[in-house]
Design goal:
globular, 15% helix, single chain, alpha+beta, eight-stranded antiparallel β-sheet
């Protein structure tokens, strides 16, 4: 079971997410654009729902035997800043990172960056050292 992981894109010179005075996310697109991108990523259709009060969009299901449970919403500027993975393993996170061109995976509960290309026996991403950007060099060759 995953704790909630944040997947996002930002320039590394802003430092660790947990030290920001102001948000430095690079917007991922509107809720609609992001939903279409996620729908096009997975072979098996996901179940979609929306919580109107908070604006959160939820997608859950299975793809190639991997559980997917994620959520996102638009920030005040109208675009989505990050995805929250509520349940998902390293391979699922890697698919999202590569498809959406994201460069950080952060575990706010442990206050640590994660490397979804290297996982424990349960398939969960390992803790990375310091501010860990998922650069092209750090991505495994498929």
């Amino acid at each position: 079971m995953t704790s909630e992981y944040m997947l996002y894109r930002a320039r590394p010179q802003f430092g660790a997410f947990n030290t920001w005075q102001n948000p430095h996310f690079e917007p991922l697109g509107t809720v609609e654009v992001l939903a279409v991108a996620i729908r096009n990523l997975f072979a098996t259709p996901l179940r979609w729902s929306r919580y109107d009060e908070g604006g959160w969009v939820f997608a859950e299901g299975k793809d190639d035997g991997h559980t997917i449970d994620l959520m996102f919403r638009a920030a005040t500027h109208g675009a989505v800043d990050y995805l929250v993975i509520r349940e998902g393993d390293g391979p699922t996170i890697v698919k999202l990172v590569e498809w959406l061109d994201l460069n950080f995976v952060f575990d706010p509960v442990r206050n640590k960056y994660l490397d979804p290309y290297h996982c424990d026996e349960a398939g969960q991403p390992l803790i990375a050292k310091g501010l860990y950007e998922l650069t092209a060099e750090r991505r495994l060759v498929s």
